[in-house]
Amino acid sequence: MAMEQEATYRGTVYPWQCDHVGHMNIMWYVGKFDEANWNLFARLGLTPSYLRSSGRGMAAVQQNIAYRRELLAGDIVEIRSHLLEVRDKSIRFRHDMTNAETGEIAATCEITGVHMDRSQRKSAPFADAIREIALHHLADPAEA
Fold first, then answer.
1. Which domain of life does the UniProt lineage start with (predicted)?
2. 45-55 pLDDT, tens digit each
3. What are the residue ranges spanned by the domains of the chain?
4. What is the DSSP letter of 30?
């Protein structure tokens, strides 16, 4: 069963997020992708309350961004996320950032995240309940 294509982030590009040539600066792409991460994680059961109470955390170990189209001040941004792979201690997912008005993909970001024990500062297996939810959210390979 593939994850519903509900947005994991919606926002806008503000003038102060733009660089000297008038495009949204790369630091803001990363920030918006980060906000989408936490919405995706919450859907998988990796909620803030779970992370706090369990002493667990998530850490990005690889992130690859492809910039396709520039975003300008005033553009409306939407990110949809696709869970690509679930392993014992890690997940791999992709965010597609679009200009919500035009539907054009502005950027994509593929991330590998590791589930961590924060006190031991090392990777830890996902709880069975979270792993089960994640497996139900895997993207259909034909759509990924």
1. Bacteria
2. 999 999 999 99
3. 9-137
4. H
